[in-house]
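As a warm-up, study this chain.
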Amino acid sequence: MYKLFFGAGLRRTVMALCFSLLAAGAGLLAGAGGVRAAAPDPTVRLETSLGEIVLRLDARKAPISTANFVQYVKSGFYDGTVFHRVIKNFMIQGGGLTPDLKQKETRTPIRNEADNGLKNKKYTIAMARTSEPHSATAQFFINVKDNAFLDFKNQTPQGWGYAVFGKVVKGQDVVDKIAAVATGHKGYYDDVPVQTVVVKKAEVLE
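Now compare it with the structure written out below.
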């Protein structure tokens, strides 16, 4: 499991940004891994065990990430997955593991679009990845505070940042509920909610 460090003076290890991805061949792709273009600014609803979250995606600034996410939604991939990592005052992460923390098989990784001008501000959704910049597949995270240190800085392994592709437009209180749950160590993972938080259903509304 990767440990990522941010800034010369920032000593804490941000385990959440390993994002538990084991995608083979990460970083070898320059495109969208064969995903189809999404409709402009689609809306996606996540029905979770703690309530409903509605996302407005930005297909104009993040066409690859948006199309990738929408394709996973339409295929039913996210149904029954969990928010498997929660760090208070940072982010909530999900979209790839089952309730027993088994990783689901994903499609080919996509290109990192963190240079699209969108910032990791509170209640934005971004693609999760490993330390390899172009390794994102299905996992995502929602920022629960402004996390400027995750933004694109330059095209280096340390500077690529994490690609934002939308924001929460309804259910911010649900995001806050998830961010506030008690967490612990389970299996290979840290920061796992003690009370399992399940994505019961994900669907495209527009």
